[in-house]
Amino acid sequence: xxxxxxxxxxxxxxxxxxxxxxxxxxxxxxxxxxxxxxxxxxxxxxxxxxxxxxxxxxxxxxxxxxxxxxxxxxxxx
Length: 77
Known about the structure:
Layout: H1 10-29, H2 36-57, E1 67-69, E2 72-74
Antiparallel strand pairs: 1-2
């Protein structure tokens, strides 16, 4: 288990998400010198931080429909 989830608060994850979104916007503004990959990765980082904040707020638990390897559903271990 990732122990990082136990050390940050939901507010810290939300601040991290906001910072990533700001970095994405900054990258877009300087797009003549920066590529779309920075904007894409900053968006993914923001999504991850928001998801982690939701998990922390839910008592470090999450509900999911299943684990998948591509299109194939696999058993959880």
